[in-house]
Amino acid sequence: MSHPDSLATLAVRAGQQRSQFSEHAEALYLTSSFVFESAAQAAAGFGGGTDRPVYSRFTNPTVTMFQDRLAALEGAESCLATASGMAAILMTAMSLLKAGDHVVCSNAVFGSTVTLFGGILGRFGVETSFVPATDVSAWRGALRPNTRLLFLETPSNPLIEVADIAAIATVAHDADALLVVDNCFCTPALQRPLKLGADLVVHSATKYLDGQGRVLGGAVCGSKRLVGEGMLPFLRTAGPSLSPFNAWVALKGLETLELRMLAQSAGALELARRLEAHPKVLRVLHPALPSHPQHALAMRQQRAGGAVVSFDVKGGREAAWKVVDATRLISITGNLGDVKTTITHPATTTHGRITPEARAAAGITEGILRVAVGLEAVDDIEADLARGLG
Ligand SMILES: *Cc1c(COP(=O)(O)O)cnc(C)c1O
Question: How do beta strands 102-106 and 147-153 pair?
């Protein structure tokens, strides 16, 4: 099937494969294995010589539909889905790295990504240096002869800093290394890292791709050589596979991705503007605000600012906790990417395990709150926050 190249159309149509029953909606293939008509056909299937699905660890038609649709949205040749976002990052590392290799990673990445690169992979002889995402010369300065991978998350969490994907891709390619971008915060609806020069995109489908807080999932997108051929052996052998049910939920989530991302970004910007005018708020961080340090870059690189707003409350931890505790509508949870608005106090939750010095160096003060804006009315979200701001 060929389709126009518009995101809206691809999100609804790309990747669908109909069965002999000609169902309109995508079918959910809840089966662990697939049967063959003969011994010879089974042998061919296992040998990888056919397109026939074999076993759902690595070939399930519902998972394939999700992969093909996400690949189309990211403008990628190939996509492989995984059980979670962390499984996608693990698959990337295990497929591309070996003992003795070096990784450069931006320092404000998802907490488990820090633990994976800085801790677990270190035990297998892979060393990782962490650099400030927005400092291109720091990326260049951290390179070593054995640097194989650069890993970037933009915008960052919880300070919503925006890093220059094209510039960092050039740094990577000058060193014969690959650039991986975690595109969880923006999704392909707002940012397409492959078009900016990145080699691979990783996703937590748990967040905006599902978009309604229902399932875990993940994915890696990139060239056929790096992903479809390069990572399939790890997926097939180690089995960090996406369940067909979760794939089906996320596949349907993709249909409304663009609508949700644009609406939630608009809501976040409106909330950010109102918070910026509040006397109890020291500063507000959202890429679409002209006061954002990388505003110009963000508006060039992203189609909108995204749904996450962070703001620093006067009065430190006590004042910030008061805002959290006074909420009645907003959910108090570290998760994001839902149509329900969530709030978190990073210094004592998502970033509570790093040292106070490291937190201070990263600019994560005790007064910072992160709100991931959902689809409720902005007036209601603002009123819920205003109660605790006093
Ligand atoms: C949540 C998240 C992950 C990990 O995804 P899981 O699906 O929870 O494993 C990775 N990167 C970012 C930016 C995230 O927000």
Answer: parallel
pLDDT per residue over 273-297, tens digit each? 999 999 999 999 999 999 999 999 9
The predicted model gives 98-103 an average pLDDT of: 98
Residue nearest to atom 4 of ligand 1 (CA): 85
Same domain, 73 and 120: yes
Residues near 203 by beta carbon (within 8 Å), at least 6 away in sequence: 70, 85, 88, 182, 183, 184, 187, 209, 218, 219, 220, 221
Same structural domain, 149 and 284: no
Instruction: Find out whether 315 and 324 touch, Cβ atoms under 8 Å.
Output: no
Look at residue 68 and tell me if it is in a domain.
Answer: yes
**How many angstroms separate the alpha carbon of residue 144 from the centre of ligand 1?**
28
238 C-alpha to center of ligand 1: Å? 20
149-199 pLDDT per residue, tens: 999 999 998 999 999 999 999 999 999 999 999 999 999 999 999 999 999
User: Ligand 1: which of 84, 207, 216, 310 to mutate, judged by most atoms within 8 Å of the beta carbon?
Assistant: 207
Q: pLDDT tens digits, residue range 198-251?
A: 999 999 999 999 999 999 999 999 999 999 999 999 999 999 999 999 999 999
The pLDDT assigned to 4 comes to 58
| 327 Cβ closer than 6 Å to some ligand 1 atom | no
| Containing structural domain, residue 347 | 258-389
Residue nearest to ligand 1 atom 14, measured at CA: 110
**Contact 85 CB / ligand 1 (< 6 Å):** yes
Q: Read off the CATH number of the domain in which 144 is found.
A: 3.40.640.10
Task: For residue 270, give the CATH number of its domain.
Answer: 3.90.1150.10
The two tokens of residue 364 are 């994560």
Do 14 and 68 contact (CB within 8 A), yes or no? yes
